[in-house]
Amino acid sequence: MKKREIFNYFVLLSSVITFLCFFIWVTPSDYLYIYNRPFGFYKKTLGFDHIYCINLPSRSDRRGKIDIIAKFHDLDIDFVKAISSKDTETLDRYLTYGVAPQHKACYVSHYKTYELIVSNNYQSALILEDDVDFEVNIKDFLNEIQPFLPINWDMFYLGNCAWDTSNTIYYNGKNYGSDLLLSKSNRPACSHAYAVSLRGARKLLENLVNITKPVDVALIDLILANKIFSLSLLPSIINQWKSKDDPSDISPGAQDEPHNLKNSTLELFGYRR
């Protein structure tokens, strides 16, 4: 009888060990570290702890578009008051060199958002500018690539204005019948949609100071100097939305970038470029 009990004990122990090994294999440690819970618990923030959208109070038209996107995708988006280029009192608190007022205002708006991430102790946050459009299936795309995110990322571009990739590939969707490609960033352009980890926000507060270039270019310099570990997702799943009646606040005469979303949320609601 004693031998039988010992045998049953080892069978039970083996079963438990097998289950734990399987659980760890199908639930990568990176996934647990970044998101803490399965994606389903974070659907309203796309898998991140928080979503911020930088918006000038005078641009209620853009806020209206973001509200449409948020309602359609069932998202909680926290609006951050953007700094105006005319707010010299605030701008004078931040040292920059040779940066135009509108670019400095953009920089300070992003910098203050990093401060919010740190003060709230968010492990990760998505930062949006208010001129964006989302892929209709954005949650499906993020679900697809989440398990492949490396554990120590500082920034994660969900959209940029360049076809940014490198030789360091973390996920190649072609192996799974998908178009998505997740790689280490090289020269990501624009700052309209990127996530920042808590560690990344602290690094940015320390290193993104006394800038001499627009913030998106200054970020590239930090990435190339290996002061920030950044990822880029291609194709973009969040893109800039520009139209004749809604030009850029920072570069009003800039030409529109190719709008390479497969299925635009704003176009679904009748907006045209």
Automatic annotation (TrEMBL):
Pfam family, one: Glyco_transf_25
Transmembrane segments: 7-26
Keyword DNA repair: no
Superkingdom as given in the UniProt entry: Eukaryota
InterPro entries in the record: Collagen_mod_GT25 (IPR050757), Glyco_trans_25 (IPR002654)
Signal sequence bounds: none
GO MF, any single term: transferase activity
Keyword annotations of the record: Glycosyltransferase, Membrane, Transferase, Transmembrane, Transmembrane helix
Location of the Glycosyl transferase family domain: 49-217
Family (UniProt): Belongs to the glycosyltransferase 25 family.
UniProt-recorded name of the protein: 10152_t:CDS:1
Species whose genome carries this gene: Diversispora eburnea
